[in-house]
Amino acid sequence: MSGIFKTFPYQEYILKGNAACPGCGATLILRYVLKALGHRTILVIPACCTSVIAGPHPKTAFDVPVLHIAFAASAAAASGIAEAVEQIGMRDVNVVVWAGDGGTVDIGLQALSGAAERNHNMIYICYDNEAYMNTGIQRSGATPYGAWTTTTPTGNKNVKKDLPMIMRAHNIPYIATLNPAFPNDIYSKVKKAKEIRGFKYFHALSPCPPGWRYDSSLTVEIARIAVLTGMWILYEQEYGDFRLTGPSRNLLEKRKRKPVVEYLKLQGRFRHLNDEDIDRIQRLVDDKWEEIKELLESNKINKK
Fold it and tell me: Is pTM beyond 0.85 here?
């Protein structure tokens, strides 16, 4: 396992003493994102857990410039920064929105869509912990079916909003999903996006021990099983070319995927589910994989 990390820079941009919860998936992901991007990076962060993790000025735990902004305005603010650095000739600066699912799939969706439509040269990363964790674990548009939150105490009755697929409709240069259990996948995708001009969108699974109700030592294991069960699919789309990445490349056939119950049973937020609920979640996952198969087939046809 030690060889996995040899290609990563030693420089750390998330400093010791930050306010992240033990086992925070978001902090794990951001650590590798910043290693891939380097110090010439400006973070734009709306109201979210990371606003707290960073800490107050002048003792911030992030070793890159950060603009903390209102919930709905992160993509709009980053759009302005991206245009400003272009105007003054700083073409080597990475302008990055780092936002939670509440600030992306719900409150920030309008500004995100506008920035993508205008194709600003920026990166938008949603770290998806599947609820409004920072304000008390309320349901968001990214909360999966059946999950407990404080506003869905008997389980969420809605199906998770698929933001990466919504972003595909914007015809932006690059879209990818991320998972903290696969740091090489994170690093390589972010390094690739750094070199692509235009708007780039990432959607990252971000396990949350307090909100998902599991022991903090299990974060990476839960993230890994999310991929192996097919609950979270690793892929990228570069200029319309869609492909699976990491372990997801080998999971097109249902028999190769672990049953979703292997993922659900590790989290207290799914403890109340009955067999019928679990069966529905399994069907939702299987249906999503059928959509992925269709995308891959369409991709093959378009290449001919």
Answer: yes
